[in-house]
């Protein structure tokens, strides 16, 4: 068992930093990446529609291509893998799959499931695309943060990257117009310590009413 697996959540949060220098000879098994993702997708989402999809890029030659799409950021090529997190702008198409699964698991009555499917489908279909994009962006942010904390708990380092050419990414990886690339997350083992950072004092950003 990795020694970090015994650390509490507060410790993991404090030790997670954005790492940009990675050991190039580290290869994380796909099974382990899937373990991380399987826990990450327990994150909450609007109406539980889970509007996230993932593309895991671990082939070295493909990472080299991706580096050019991602503003030549070194970590894209040197990290063990890049996890691209996509947002589903048409998340209402997931509603039947999600809620029928809830029914089959015994979590909901059939009448409740049918009512939710009907109301959610109508609501999301009528929502402007910009609203649905905002929802997908928010929810993919939740799953991405959970992913990075889980990676740190397993002894891996990460860095989220929003700076990449999203249109070129879609073209290279044949991404449907239904989905939008939100963030690339490099994962691997740090080759050098991350820069230490400070935070704005809580007293400056909190108020009680």
UniProtKB/TrEMBL annotation:
Residues 13-189 form the Nitroreductase domain. Keywords: Oxidoreductase. The keyword Transport does not apply. Pfam families: Nitroreductase. Signal peptide: none annotated. Belongs to the nitroreductase family. This is Nitroreductase. The lineage of its organism: Bacteria, Bacillati, Bacillota, Bacilli, Bacillales.
């Amino acid at each position: 068992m990795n020694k970090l697996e015994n650390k509490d959540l507060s410790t993991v949060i404090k030790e997670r930093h954005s790492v940009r220098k990675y050991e190039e000879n580290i290869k994380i098994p796909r099974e382990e990446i899937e373990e991380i993702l399987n826990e990450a997708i327990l994150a909450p989402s609007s109406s539980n529609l889970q509007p996230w999809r993932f593309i895991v890029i671990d082939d070295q030659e493909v990472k080299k291509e991706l580096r050019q799409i991602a503003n030549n950021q070194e970590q894209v090529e040197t990290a063990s893998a890049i996890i691209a997190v996509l947002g589903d702008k048409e998340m209402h198409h997931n509603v039947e799959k999600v809620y029928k699964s809830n029914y089959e698991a015994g979590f909901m009555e059939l009448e409740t499931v049918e009512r939710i499917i009907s109301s959610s489908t109508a609501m999301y279909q009528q929502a402007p695309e910009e609203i649905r994009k905002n929802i997908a962006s928010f929810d993919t942010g939740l799953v991405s943060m959970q992913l990075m904390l889980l990676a740190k708990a397993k002894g891996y380092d990460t860095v989220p990257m929003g700076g990449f050419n999203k249109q070129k990414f879609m073209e290279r990886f044949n991404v449907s117009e239904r989905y939008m690339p939100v963030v690339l997350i490099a994962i691997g083992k740090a080759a050098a310590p991350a820069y230490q950072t400070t935070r704005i004092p809580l007293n400056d950003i909190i108020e009680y009413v």
